[in-house]
Structure formats: structure tokens, C-alpha cells
Amino acid sequence: MGIGNGAGIDEKKIAKLVLHAHPSLLRWAPPCKHNFTPAQFEALKAVCDTIVPSLPPPFKDGEAFELMRGVTAEDVARFYEANASDEGVAEVVAASLEVLVRPVVLKTMLQVLSLLSTGWGTALLAVVGRVNILTFKYPVFRKFSRLPLRDQEKVLRGWSTSPLPQFRLLFKAFKSVGGWAFYSKVNEYGYNVSWKAIGYPGVAPEVRNRTEADYKQPRPLGDAHVDAKEAGAGLKSILASKGFVVEEVESFRSQSEKLGFSKNDNDVYLQCDAVVVGSGSGGGVMAAALAKQGFKVVVLEKGQYFAAQDMSTLEGPTLLNMFEKMGAMATDDGGVALIAGKSVGGGTTINWSVSLKTPQNVRDEWANEHGLDMFNSERYDKATQAVCDRISVQPNVDKHSIQNIILREGCKKLGYHHGTLSRNCASDHYCGWCTYGCPTGKKQSTAQTWLVDAVNTGNALILSNCTADYVFHGANPGGVKGSKAQGVAATIVGGPNRVYIKANATVVSCGALMTPVLLLKSGLKNPNIGKYLRLHPASTCYGYFPEGTGPEGRPYEGGIMTEYAPVNFRKPTEYGGLLETGVFHPGAFSAFHAWGSGADNKERLLRHGRTSHITVVVRDKGFGTVEIDKGRNPKISYKMSKYDQETTVAGMVQSLRVLVAAGAVEVGSQQLGAERFNAKGASPSDIEAYLNRVERRGASETTAQIISAHQLGSCRMGTSPSTSAADPRGEIWEVEGLFVGDGSVLPTAPGVNPMVTIQSVAFCTAEHIVQYLNKFKI
Ligand SMILES: Cc1cc2nc3c(=O)[nH]c(=O)nc-3n(C[C@H](O)[C@H](O)[C@H](O)COP(=O)(O)OP(=O)(O)OC[C@H]3O[C@@H](n4cnc5c(N)ncnc54)[C@H](O)[C@@H]3O)c2cc1C
């Protein structure tokens, strides 16, 4: 079966979901062609069907069973009957792994699958998880796909707690990608097979109510936005009408030949004052600030442009189109899930609105220990104020969501410090869907603010579906630095045509994961490029509040994050952590929650609508790296330091205490092999014993599900090229006219949600770029 319709859909009963939204955000079209051998694929299919198996309903006829409001026993039975392979998940997992992991890592995964396709190999891999699956019956050795489900589950569970970290990571990869594909999938009817059973509405109410007329409203970026892929062969004339197009630039052509870039009929050459690569937090500020000063700016964005009326909030299609690597990216060994935005507006389009100024202790550290005076200057205060004004940061919340009430009430009961978070939206913004794009436009993302300012000057062009591949730089006669930036080459998504942009200033704002990749691919040599990657590693605990207990509502309703509490384990001035809530729609929920068996996975999902989360987000002292391998593929590595592991586990224990105090009936963590703790009626000593077990299990990238939504510091600013990648003005040490404007320039992790800090720094860097560009004025 291909990407199947699955067991859960009764075609006679179901009406196709009709929504008015961008076509890309309605279609779930993940990669599904792969190069696995039939034996490897059969093994993978069996692994996927172990993670999400077909099961009998969890109740017998006439037996009482706790169902979510509005859910019928029939809905649950259909969901239990569905398995991963009937839904076409194995094809998607195979093809996605080929996209997600580097060839060398994939090779290891394929070797494991090849072993699983044999009886002796399966027995060997069971031993890795300290599991015995041999029987005295013939055949003694059975390949994984021939094992009974009970034994298949034993093998995977064994891996999840194996003494060999490689197998724990392998388990995490299969479990996460399998769950992600099964639960975020949208079939041809616009539904997912689990939704009715778990009481999940699939889309935000605003999307369901949107009319065709709403959808057809003008988009804020108007015709200053051009989708390079959609424009096709007409791109050159569209851009010529805007006055950017020039004749072929000879020096670019000759360098391109050396780089192996083919010459194509529809290649386009543009000229402007500044090219900004990436349209997220940093890139948006840059574009607005430079265009405001009268400079011609071209913004390149590899993602598409979606305005508020385009958002479908459908999980699967949105992950595929608005997130880096389909929302399923991870560090090289699979240890940390890396979540980052990829559309016009970057991370700000899918982020959770929390808008916090850089804490004073962090500013002091950056000024005093890193020698960056800017951070203790009035200029930085003014930049932060300008940012907060433009993105409408305000501290009020009219109504908190269930998850935030639970965090607040639990903290109150325990006497823990807690507070309300400022956000870049109005106080009545009550939306838990914004992680899949704000359907009302109330969230003041970059695409709603800075980029609108940029295009309103008449000086900016936003070119989407365009991936920058190379920064041209060369001789700099008379200049202080050995080399000078000349512009960029970008591929129009889908290829082969390219856009070449000649500019006096080049600003790289691709985010802390991709900025080093572009600079390294462009031949830059400073070893600090890609070093010091901070991730604000995070892990989540949950509490289950059955219908009728705890506050009303669903975890995906209401502001995603409106309350916080500091991790008590560290002093306020130390590198510590914050407890914040987080939203997990079904795909993300299954990907990141613990897994004990297929039945365990399905039961957890049945409780999805009444499961509340608290995430500990850590200000990491440790750091990772971004490199490129010989094949020029990004390689992102990160191992949590002992100090950060201690903060994480302390934050998890604190979260669990808060959830228990708030009345959770069951609590649990996202540790590998984690238990589900029955908190209802548990004695204080039972609870302490459980928390001790959580502490002992630990919280590292190989023992827990660790997520990063904040990537920072990989091209940090500093006062010397021996310790940093960019100078205090944000200019790359090696190349004049090449600036970094995103989270990569932060000297260390700020320890708070970073959007306002990134924008404030970009605001200051933009002032330097204006000075630089003024030199070119005649
Ligand atoms: C789910 C989620 C929730 C979050 N919630 C919050 C929050 O509530 N508050 C907060 O402060 N922060 C939050 N963040 C973090 C915040 O959004 C990011 O830290 C911030 O957006 C990063 O800004 P940036 O400029 O570094 O990169 P980004 O905003 O990620 O922008 C980079 C852009 O560059 C593009 N790009 C990359 N490579 C290329 C290339 N080669 N060519 C062309 N384009 C390219 C990308 O597609 C992307 O659009 C959240 C992040 C996520 C993922």
C-alpha cells in the first residue's frame, strides 16, 4: 500500500474536509520513494508496526471505558485497528530518513535493518537490549518481522534502555519518526485516522470558519514578495519590472564554473545594496532597518510565504512546509531534536510569542567576560525598546490556558516562584495553534511587522523558495580584511536555475544551524564558525487530568506559553533553567512522549486532550558544533554537559512536583524507558521514591527525549578572531561586508526565550551596516 487511506476511515460516512488555506498547507506530501532493499524495508515496516500496531479495542463489549467527551467506542476501535504500515508510514519513514540523516549515519541504520531481516541478527540485536526472544520451538531464530508483537515490543523496549547509547538513539529515531509520520499524516479526506478517537479537531477553529473571501484578502507583503519557484521562466521579467535585474556578472560566472554550478537558461542576475539571506527574527529586522535608510534590499528565503489567511494549522502539511527538515531534524547522532522555522518569517512564524528582554546578568556577562560593551550600553536598551514596540510586546493575558493554569496553581501550592510571560500579541490572543502558523495574524511575527516595514519603503524585495548556496568573496585591495563580500548565489527550489545577487553588503541570517553551513560552504576558514552552538536543551514532563478534574480545556487551546517558573536548583544568577509549558499536537506528542509498547502509545494518545505539559528549558553551559562533511552535508553535534544534565533533571523533578500538586492523576517524563506514575492517592513516600527513580534515570541526549527550539551562538561575536567568528559589529572577521544577523552571533545562551535578544542584536548590527553602506554612496 502507498500512502494509504487506512483502516480508520469509513468512506461512506466521512465528508472531505474543505478548508480555505494555501494548497501546500492542505496536502500531506512527504517523501515516500526510497532506496532500501526489500529485506531492509520489510524490517523497517515491522519496526513501524511495532511502534504503532493494529490492536483489538482496549475494552470488551459492554465494558465501561473512560472516553474523552464526544468520542465513541467505535471511534476508538477504528483507531486501535489502524497500524503504521496500512497508513503508508513505513515508506515515509524510509524516504524521510534518507533526507534527514547523513549518508554515513543512514548506512549504520541500514546495517541494523539488514540484521533485523535475519533470524540470527534479530537474536543478536535483542541481546543488545538484554532481551531473550529465543524459543524452544522451531524456528529458534526468527527475523524481526516474524516475531510475535510481544517480542517485537520487548526488543524495542530493550533498545530504549540498552547499555549501548547507540541503540537508545536508534530507538529514539525510529520511535520519533514513526510516531511523527503516523499521527501528523493527513489523508486524502483531510483527516488523520486517530483524530476522532482522541477528540482532536485537526485544525484551529478560525481555520474551519474561514471563508473563501477571507482567504482571498491581500497578503501583507503584496507584490514585493515573489515566489521564485512559482514565477518559473517569468522570474526574470517580474524582477526586471522592479528594477533589480542586471546582465550576467562575469566574475560570478567564472567563480560558479569553478564551483560546478551549471549555467542555465533561466538564471537571473540581480543587483542591490544589501542581500539578506533568511527572513526570520534577525533577517526581518535587518531588511527593515536597511530599507528604511533608503538602501535597496533583497531578502532571500528558502521557504515559502504564508500569510495568516494561508495557514491551515494542519500538523503534517505544516511541519513539511514551515519547518526545517519537515520538523524532524536532529543532531547527527539523533540525540537532540532540532525544531526551527523555514518559511518567510522563519522561527517567528511558528514560535510561541514569548518576548523577554535579555536578562541583566546575561548582559553583564557578555559585556564583562566577552568584552562586548554594547550589551551594557544605552544603545542596546534603545534597540530592545524599538524591537518590543515594533512587535507589540505586552505583559497581559486575559485568560490563561489549562496548561498555564496548572503550572501556576501547582507552583502556588508549593510556594515556588512563578510569573507571567510577556508576549508579542494582544492580551486576548487565545490560540494554541500558532506553532503551526498564526491563523489570525495576531501574533506579531516578522512577516507581519519588520518585513512589512521593509516592503512599505518601496526598497525591499522578498524572494521566497530560493536557497542561498554560496557567498562570493574575493580580493579587497586597500581594505583592512583580506577579502570582501560580493553577493550570493542561490538555487531556486526544485532547481536547476539560480539567482545571482551582487551586493555591497551581504547579511547571513539563516539561523544558528544554517548560517555556519552557508559560511563553511563558501570556503570561510575561521575555526570559530560553527563552534559554540547553544541549544537551550529542553525536556518535558506531563500530567494527566481526566475529564472533570483540573481546569477546563484542551492543551492545544489558549496561549501556548503565558506562565513560567525558574528552576529552583540553581541560583537566579547561575546558568539555570526555566519551566514553561509547551504544546504537543498528536504527531509531536507521539514523537516525544515515552513509549512502552504499542498499546501504551495508543492509550497515551487517547489521553492527549487531557494531558498537560511542563517543559524545562536549560541555559546551557555546554555547547555543540555545526560542521560540513566531505559531501558538504551539515553535521550538527551536541552532547549535554554534566552541569546541564543536572539542571535538566532537577527541572524535571520540579515539574513533576508541580503537576502532582496541581492534581494530576498520572505523571511521567520523556526519559527513555520512563514509567507512568500513578499519582492519584500516592503517598508522599511513593512520590519521593518515584522522583528518585526519575533522578537516577538522568536527563542527557542519550537517556531522554531532548528538544531544542532555540539554536544560538554558532558564529558568536567577540573581540578576537581567535575566540569568535564575528567582530562586535557583527561583521565576519575574515570578510569585509559580510555580516551575521541572527541567533548565531549571541556570545552564549541567553537563558530566556531568545527572539527579542536576537532582534535587538540585529537592530544594533544593522546600524553598523548602514554606516558601512554609506561608504558606497557617491
Ligand atoms: C516551536 C518554536 C517555538 C518558539 N517559541 C519561542 C518563543 O515563544 N519566544 C522566543 O523568544 N523564541 C521562540 N522560539 C525561538 C525563536 O523563534 C528563534 O530563536 C528565532 O526565530 C531564531 O531567529 P534567527 O534569525 O536566528 O533564525 P530564524 O528565525 O530561524 O530564521 C532563519 C531563516 O533562514 C532561512 N534559511 C536558512 N538557510 C537558508 C538559505 N541557505 N537560504 C535562504 N534561506 C535560508 C530559514 O528558512 C529561516 O526562515 C521558538 C522556536 C520554535 C521552533
From TrEMBL:
**Domain Glucose-methanol-choline oxidoreductase C-terminal spans what residues?**
624-762
Q: Does the keyword Magnesium apply?
A: no
Q: Where is the signal peptide?
A: none
| The protein's enzyme class | oxidoreductase
* Residues that coordinate or bind FAD: 272-287
Q: What is the superkingdom listed in this entry's lineage? A: Eukaryota
Q: What is the recorded name of this protein?
A: Long-chain-alcohol oxidase
- Species name for this entry? Physcomitrium patens
The upper taxonomy is: Eukaryota, Viridiplantae, Streptophyta, Embryophyta, Bryophyta
